[in-house]
Amino acid sequence: MLDIAPSKQAATWLSSFSHALEACDAAAATNLFVEDCYWRDLLTFTWNIKTMEGRAAIRDMLEATLATTKPTAWQLSGEASADEGIVEAWFTFETSSAWGQGIMRLQDGRCRTLFTAMSDLKGFEERKGPARPLGVRHKADPDRETWAEARAREARSLGAIDQPYCLVIGGGQGGIMLGARLRQLGVATIIIEKNAEAGDSWRNRYRSLVLHDPVWYDHLPYIPFPENWPVFTPKDKMGDWLEMYTRVMELNYWTSTTCISASYDEVEKVWTVEVDRDGERITLKPKHIVFATGAYGPPRQIDLPGAEAFQGEILHSSQYSSGEKFRGRRVAVIGAASSGHDVAVDLWESGAEVTMIQRSPTTVVKSDTLMEVGFEIFSEKALARGITTEKADMIVASTPFALLPQSQRALYDIIKARDAAFYDRLRGAGFAIDFGDDETGLLMKAYRTGSGYYIDVGASDLIIDGEIGVRSGVEIKSLTPTGILLDDGTELAADAIISCTGYQSMNETVATIVSREVADKVGPCWGIGSGVKGDPSPWQGELRNMWKPTAQEALWFHGGNLALSRFYSKFVALQIKARMEGVATPVYEAPGR
Question: Which ranges of the sequence are coiled-coil (predicted)?
């Protein structure tokens, strides 16, 4: 088949696949895949976020889902391409309840990877483009209700007279993006946020915080950043954008609101949620709740023996906002990942004497290097080639997690060679570097444990030059009145300690609001079961609990960086919308697996 044009190869395969599926012949469809194959599905067949690995898994899934899914109308969209013997093609299709799209990659005429994703629910499509709402009735009417009046009426009634179908707990970037998706699908939603204004979750962080990811990677759905937006967004600018976004997207956004408790009635299929809204206790009765409390859960506090004797101040990074009050003081930063580096730089800029305590090696990647070799499809050059942010999202999502280590290892071989002199200088300054247990680098650490990495935007040069001190490979034995006693017998003098030790899993937030029992039932979030420290086996093939049904009915998790929140908010919203409209959503395989 190598001498056949890529589009013809793709069309031939897709036709055979379509015929097999329409005949409900799972065996014939499975035989169109290579032995070492993967099918990643976002809702269309499984009503789950699920990767089938190997022919047997694909056959089992098809046998369980074909009768209800009824997939048809498979068509190529655009021309296929070929690279090193792999044919790649995009396609569209439909099921009994949805419209779908996807990407196939063929090897010697058979499928190596297949990606299918839901685009819209049939009959419940977003009203956009040609189907956008008119916005006004061109008719004189003494009882006319203006847009502003309608919005005010909705704001008054939702949560008082009318109950939301969905309650989103957390109004940061994830909650806001999900709220926008749900709004466009007509799902009555309230987003609750503990801060006084939308965007405060960014504004309240330390003053020097700037996104480490580039603008092309960080767009919000529906309203992309303008073309003059900076490549790296400052925190306060991001806060202002999120505040604007909540208003323009007409979100029902309750500020100064905290969630006190939540319980689910398994018979009535409804939550009872107690919230405190600016001092007023309110009971809400949503059908679904979504925890969008950030990428992780509550701050992770480490045990510091002797803390009661320490005469200085101890803060977790979540409590840190500025280094100004530490000017001229000796500050120890515990932790050497992203927040540890950022806090150390802010302290140094404020005139503090900073020492970083590095308890385990860190993966460090220079920002400009990562921009050039790691974000290639999220860039101006990519846009010039027709790769929009939406298309780049699909390309990223189409790669099964099981295949990421191979590509990431190859990427980091390039990075290590390119920046060898930089890494030598960093090691020479006493800073311990690694690239993960299997040399796969930053991205795999992010997925597996969410810790142990830093995109260098300036801290590394300060470490190399000795401006930020480092104590590496040591553990804290105890605090003393004037500092930290390390396990090598030395004492580090400190007037203050900033603990940059990360956060717990998102299900720990569930424990404080719903119950310990429910938190344990759904289990931890993030991680793929790689077996490395912090990401125990068994293999999951997908991120635990994120954006999909959990072991607790009507409880969802949504979060991640801006890119993950943008992309997966669509699929969380589609799942909730389907349930609201009574669309059958048989989930393939038990939630949490």
Answer: none
